[in-house]
Amino acid sequence: MDAELNDVMRGLCLAEGRMEQALFHAERAHRAAPENPGAMADYAALLAGVSHGSRIDEALPLIERALTLDPTNRQAHFALVAAHFTKARIADALAAARRALEVLPGDHDLTLKLVPGLMNLGLAHEAAPIAAGLLASNPDALHLAETLCTVLNYDHTASPTRVFDAHRNYGRLMTERVGTHTPPSLRPRGEAARLRLGIISPDLRLHSVGFFAEPILRHLDRARCDVFVYYTYPAADAVTARLRSYPSTWRDAARLPPDALAAMIRADRLDVLVELTGLTTGHSLLALALRPAPVQVTYLGYPATTGLPAIDARFVDSRTDPAPSADAFATERLVRLDPCFLCYSAPANAPDVAALPAARDGPFTFGSFNALTKINAGVLAAWARVLLAVPGSRLVVKARELNSPDCHAHLMSRLAHAGIEPSRVTVLPPPEGVAEHLDCYRLVDVALDTFPYCGTTTTCEALWMGVPVVTLAGDRHAARVGASLLSAVGLDDWITTDVDAYVARAARAAADVDALSRLRPGLRQRVAASPLCDGPGFAARFLAAIESLVPAQA
Fold first, then answer.
1. Rounded-to-integer distance, Cα 279 and Cα 350, Å
2. Do 281 and 148 fall within a single domain?
3. pLDDT value, residue 360
4. pLDDT score of 86 more than 60
5. Quick check: 443 pLDDT over 90?
6. In 10 A of CB 224, how many CB atoms?
7. Do both 214 and 323 map to the same domain?
8. pLDDT for the residue 7
9. 280 close to 373: Cβ distance less than 8 angstroms
10. What is the sign of the dihedral through the CA atoms of 236, 237, 243 and 247?
11. Spatial separation of the C-alpha atoms in residues 442 and 430, rounded to whole Å
12. CATH code, domain with 232
C-alpha cells in the first residue's frame, strides 16, 4: 500500500509541476519495492530530470537495473535516452533509442526521439523520412507536422515544393484545431493618429533575433506609432533590459496559454501584430491563429512561410524572395524590404579586427561557424574540393553542438569520409561569451557559407570581424539570405550560384592574399556604412511597409 500511495502522490505532484515533491514520493515508492522495475524506472527518470540533470550519474545504474529486470520497460528506455541527450551523448542517445525500438517496435515517441539526435549530427536528410513517416501514421498531429517543417528546412534533398507543401499542411492542421476566427475591425483613425504596432517574440534576449530586432525597437518613429511588445520567454537578460528601455508598452506574456495571450493582444486594439518566431521554439502561432489583430505579419526568425491563413504578410526582400517566382511558395503576401530585409546590430564589445592570418606566413584558413545542423553531405563535399584546390589550406569549424564529444567525433568521421584529412581541420567548441566567440575569427581568412540553409548571424559576424564569406545562392529563402547580406554590403562578387563556382571563388580568394589584406581592415567600416547596419533607414522602411498594410482611413 505504501508503494501505491506514493505512486498516487507522485502522479499528483507531476500534474502540478512540483518536481522535487514528485521525486520524493518516487524515491519512497522505490524503497518500498526496491526490485520493482516500474518503480525503479519512475524514480530514475525523475532523478535524471531534476536539478538540470546534475543527478544523472545516480540515475543511470537504476535505469540499467530496471532494463535488466524488464527489457520492455518503456519508462526506463525513455529515461536512458533522455539522460544521454542531457549529457550531450548524442550517439549514445540514438543507439539507446534504436535498442529500445527493437523491443518496442513502432513506438511513436521513441521513434520521434531519433529526429533531434540525427539533426544534431547534421543528418537532416535521415531525420526527414522518420518525421514524415510518423506524420503519415498520425496525420492530425500538429506537433508532428511542425517537426517535419523544421526538419525539411535543413534537408538538402528536399525541394522547395516539398517544403512549402509541409508548411501548408501545418497551417491547415492549425486552422482545423482552432477554427476560423474573424479578426477585429481596424480602428477608425485619422491621418494624424498613431498606428498601434505589436511585436511578439520569446527571443528578445541574447539571441540572434535580438541582434536584428534592436534597430527596429530603437529607431521606430514614435510620432507615427505606439509600440506594444509581448515578450513570451520566462527569463530576461541584459539584452532584454536594453530592448525594454526603448519606448514601448512591454507585456511580460510568458506562460500565458494561447487564448489568454490572444485576449491580451486583442485588448490592446492593435492595428498590426508582427511575430518574430515562425515555427521555431517558443512560438505563439496558436495565439495568432485566433486572429487577435486585424493585420498579422511574420518576419525575421524563420526562413520559410508559416503556412497559416491567419498570417497576412511576410517581410522579405527581392534577393531572398525574387518576384514573382517566390510568391508561389508562401501562403502570406510577400512584402519586400529592399535592399535587405535585415538590419544588423553588432555587439558593442566586439574585439578589433585582427590581421589576416595568411599574411603572417601561416597556412590559408577557411572557416565555418554555422550550426552543425546546416552542415550536410553536399556542403562537406564542396569543402573537400575547396581544400583540394588550395594545397596546404586548413579548415576551422565551430558550432554549439561540438561541445558534445559525440558530435565532434561524428563530424570528424564525416569530414574524413568526404575526403578531408583530419590533420587539416581544427574543431572549436563554442567559447563562453560573444566577444570570445567573435575573436575566433582571427583564425579565419575566408568563411565558407553553408547551403541550402545559409548562415545569417554568422555571416554578419564574419563580415563585422573583417572576414569575407563565400555563399551559394540557391532556390529558396533560406538559401538566399547570404546573397542578400553580401549584396547589401557591396560584396556581390562573393555570391555564387553553383558548387563549381563556389569552389572556384574560394580558391581565387586564397590565390590573392594581397587583395584580402587590403579588404580585411576596412570591411567593418564598410559594413557599418552599408544598408545592413543603417538602423534609422531600415526602421523607416519597416514602418512604411507596416503602414502600407493598413489604410490611412479605416
1. 30
2. no
3. 83
4. yes
5. yes
6. 16
7. yes
8. 44
9. no
10. positive
11. 15
12. 3.40.50.11380
> What 3-state class would DSSP assign to 231?
strand
Asked if the structure places residue 433 within a domain, the reply is yes
Find out whether 427 and 474 touch, Cβ atoms under 8 Å. no
Choose among 367, 369, 349: nearest CA to 434: 349
Sign of the Cα pseudo-torsion (94, 98, 100, 104, in order): positive
How much is the pLDDT for 191? 54
- The grid coordinates listed for 179 are 477554427
- Cross-strand bridge partners of residue 395: 366, 425
Tens-digit pLDDT profile for residues 329-356: 999 999 999 999 999 999 999 999 999 9
Q: What number is the average pLDDT over the span 111-119?
A: 96
Q: Which of 330, 379, 324, 310 is nearest to 161 (CA)?
A: 330
452 and 363 share one domain: yes
- Asked if residue 268 and residue 382 are part of one domain, the reply reads no
Residue 348 domain flag: no
Residue 90 resides in a domain: yes
How far is the C-alpha of 511 from the C-alpha of 364, rounded, in Å?
Answer: 9
How far apart are the C-alpha atoms of 290 and 259, rounded to whole Å? 8
Instruction: Output the nine-digit C-alpha cell for 305.
Output: 512561410
**Cβ atoms < 10 Å from Cβ of 184:** 15
Whether residue 366 is found in the same domain as residue 511: yes
Residue 183 located in a structural domain: no
Same domain, 326 and 382: no
- The answer to whether residues 363 and 476 belong to one domain is yes
Domain that holds residue 384: 357-532
CB-neighbour burial class of residue 528 (10 A; exposed 0-12, middle 13-18, buried 19+):
middle
Q: For 118-174, how does the pLDDT look when each residue is reduced to its tens digit (9 = 90+)?
A: 999 999 999 999 999 999 999 999 999 999 999 999 999 999 999 999 999 999 999
Per-residue confidence (pLDDT) for residue 157, from 0 to 100: 97
Note the pLDDT of residue 50: 61
Mean of all residue pLDDT scores within the chain: 91
**Residue 318 DSSP SS3:** coil
Alpha-carbon distance 460 to 474, whole Å? Answer: 19
Q: What is this structure's pTM?
A: 0.91
Residue-level length of the chain: 554
- Average pLDDT rounded to a whole number, residues 363-385: 96
CA–CA separation, 433 vs 333, rounded Å?
39
